[in-house]
Specification:
432 residues; six-stranded mixed β-sheet; 8 helices; binds adenosine monophosphate; binds magnesium ion
Length: 432
């Protein structure tokens, strides 16, 4: 792991840093400044690079397309032969198909039957689509076509050499997550292997004596551990390599052993639970021995308590996110604090979350002075995006998250929302 700035130096630069009253924006800024990308790069076959992060700018070795070509099935001609106010009749000198060439040079009064993607014959600068001409005697050489005035302008329906990508210029920038279009674009350059940042290793565990894992009997007073599954899902979707360390009991020695093992094996450690007042004290002391970890109370709902920093053991270190225990809080804290940091560590240059505006179907109580993330259902009604909340918004009610398809973002300074007001929403799903 690359050495990085220390937390106290970053926070000492902030005039208004108060760990007990941190705004969402401040916490995000500190986290962003603290983490650095992993340096290791691997070369992968193009298909295996899907969803991975490009580690270097990819320069185009060729022009794409490599030659001027036709955008339509039709007839290639010299634009100079067109008449603005009268029909012209041209002799069809040859036919070129995609993959073919036309050896000759077109003479005045001639055209070439051409298919989409076929190279433009020398001398031609214009294509008239076949449905816009009157063809005589089919398309055989020797036949003629007649083009009415005004149906095409010189230069129409010609795709220029290099109009997609130019040789010697960057086709893709480092830090880009490779999507299906990028695989196709790289293939269009004839490139078989790409350098990508190695996968981020993330260890995660749940803390709490009350937690039972799936398969264990549910003893009185206990609940099943759900956070490890939501965390698994969110981390998997980011494309991390995962180390699931299970449930760790609320005993200092057990938690310390888990933290040590986690940071010896991972770039980042994510835990849930045990950071709220009452539980945090012994964790705080123990983490102070392992590294530099701040315990924050963030002006956010849900997800107020959070621990953040770096811990080390046996010469290996990892970034630590101690997320709150409540099932909705852990997801909110993951999406709005951990996600961006993990992407940054993965080498992603920028991954802004695209907020949309929607009309709130109901009023929402909200006090200025903290950021709230409510769970909503976004729908398009008569061309207007509207959002309604998914019932009870308690931070333990995971159903509110499961039923939602978006998060309603109520900003720090924002007050109550009236029905009919526009609010910011963050949709959960795009095209997968
Ligand atoms: P804590 O932050 O440890 O005080 O936990 C806050 C609340 O979240 C408590 O009601 C815990 O029982 C619950 N909780 C903590 N961890 C988990 C988990 N892994 N799965 C489900 N609920 C949890
Ligand atoms: Mg607990």
């Amino acid at each position: 792991m690359t050495p990085t700035a220390d937390l106290s130096r970053i926070t000492s630069c902030l005039s208004d840093y108060d760990p007990n009253a941190l705004s969402v924006a401040q916490a995000q800024r500190i986290i962003r400044e603290f983490v650095t990308p992993v340096a290791a790069v691997e070369k992968l076959a193009l298909r295996s690079a899907l969803d991975r992060v490009l580690a270097a700018d990819l320069m185009s070795p060729i022009d794409v397309p490599p030659h001027d070509n036709s955008a339509m099935d039709g007839y290639a001609l010299r634009g100079a032969d067109l008449q603005p106010d009268q029909a012209v009749t041209l002799r069809v000198a040859a036919t070129v198909l995609a993959g073919d060439g036309f050896a000759g040079t077109l003479q005045a009064g001639e055209c070439v039957r051409i298919m989409t993607g076929a190279p433009m014959p020398a001398g031609c600068d214009t294509v008239v689509p076949q449905e816009l001409v009157q063809a005589d005697h089919g398309a055989a050489a020797g036949a003629t076509v007649t083009i009415a005035p005004g149906v095409v302008k010189p230069g129409d329906h010609r795709r220029r050499r290099g109009e997609d990508l130019q040789a010697g210029k960057p086709a893709l920038r480092r830090g880009k997550i490779l999507r299906p279009a990028d695989l196709g674009l790289i293939a269009s350059l004839g490139i078989a292997e790409v350098p990508v940042v190695r996968r981020l290793r993330v260890a995660f565990f749940s803390t709490g004596d009350e937690l039972r894992s799936i398969g264990e009997p549910l003893d009185p007073g206990c609940i099943y551990d759900s956070n490890r599954y939501t965390l698994y899902g969110m981390l998997k979707r980011l494309g991390c390599d995962l180390i699931d360390m299970g449930v760790v009991k609320d005993r200092p020695e057990a938690i310390e052993a888990a933290f040590r093992s986690a940071c010896e094996n991972a770039d980042a450690v994510i835990t849930s639970g045990g950071v709220s007042v009452g539980e945090a004290d012994y964790t705080r002391q123990m983490l102070a021995r392992l590294g530099e970890v701040a315990f924050w109370k963030i002006a956010i709902r849900p997800g107020r308590p959070m621990a953040f920093g770096r811990i080390a053991s046996n010469g290996k270190s990892a970034v630590l996110f101690g997320l709150p225990g409540n099932p909705v809080a852990v997801m909110v804290a993951f999406y709005f604090f951990a996600r961006d940091a993990l992407l940054r560590m993965m080498g992603v240059e920028s991954a802004p979350l695209p907020l949309m505006r929607a009309i709130s179907a109901s009023s929402v109580r909200k006090k200025p002075g903290r950021t709230e993330y409510q769970r909503g259902i976004l729908a398009a009604e008569n061309g207007q995006l509207t959002v309604r909340l998914t019932g009870s918004q308690g931070s333990g009610i995971l159903r509110s998250m499961s039923e939602a398809n978006c998060m309603v973002v109520l900003h720090h300074d924002q007050g109550a929302v009236n029905a009919g007001d526009a609010v910011d929403v963050l949709p959960f799903e795009g095209l997968l």
